[in-house]
Amino acid sequence: MSIRVGKTSAARTFPIAAKEALGNAQLRRNVHHATDVIRNKRALRVEEMPDWQQLRDSASAIKQHTLAHLDFYLEEFSRNCESSGGKVHWARDADEANAIAVKLICEFAGDAPQEVIKVKTMTSDEVQMNVALEAADITPIETDLADMIVQLGHDEPSHIVVPALHKNRVEIRDIFRREMNLPELTEQPEDLTAAARRYLRERFLRTKIGISGANFLVAETGAVCVVESEGNGRMCVTLPEMLVTLVGIEKVIPKSQDLEVFLQLLPRSATGERMNPYNSLWSGVTIGDGPREFHVILLDNGRTKLLEDELERETLQCIRCGACLNACPVYRETGGLAYGSIYSGPIGAILSPQLQSLAPTLDALELSCPDV
User: Which of 66, 160, 220, 280 maximizes the CB count within 10 A of its CB?
Assistant: First the structure.
């Protein structure tokens, strides 16, 4: 089965959606401001790294090597994860991944009210996991601030790293006022943060099941790594009694030492930070510490198809930093929602056709590639 697409693609072609976005002056101001801030911060952080290009070359070499021997490293990860008490599941496509997640949740929760807390994972958006959970009467609760804004606003993500980039703080205030019943809430960042914390803390404490994504899987230890900036990820992977991690098979790297390279590159390119405030690594299950059940769902969903072609394989080297979106003139004018697919911008123009089909992104491609 192919990757699912968002509601936008089913309803509008890219030219129609882009024209609508171009007419939304507030959205364009929001996107311009946010991408300018991130690009300027990234430039400063990159400039202070004399070995920046060497780091990029090292990361590329690690990914090339891993993808060339992906079956070996996935088997090594699976073996080491399970030897530490985790359980690895293999999903060929979106339906299989969602079915595994729903089955695990229902078996664990029994007849109790079923809800899950989530730390941001583009992969769960890729397979439309929230839709599948809700169809099974399971309530997903997004805990990343931007994803929470998108969920409460009944919206869709517009950026790989900053899903609510298209919203400003006045619009966020209005969403919080309505959804959290806080009519006196101001748009001051401190007040918005306090409201989000109160909303989330109660859910962190009551919810027994967590779902996470992963930035990296470490084959030699069977460990999972999540990097984030708010601390919600740390809460999601430590407080629940059961944790389910959904991750694309291309996220595996050979050794813990390889993280030295990626943990310098990713935060600088993604958000202009020297390092992520929270870097969480865990492996298996420890009695009396953290979840008592840990499951990893390794998702294919078209990825092995890309491995067959040496050129297309390069797509799987992407670490989802989002820098290409911030620099793209089309994305900066239209935002991510116009693309009609989960992965937007330049990486989306490459990745979405390869994983789903050419049709949903054909209009966007034709604007820059008339002969496609």
Answer: 160
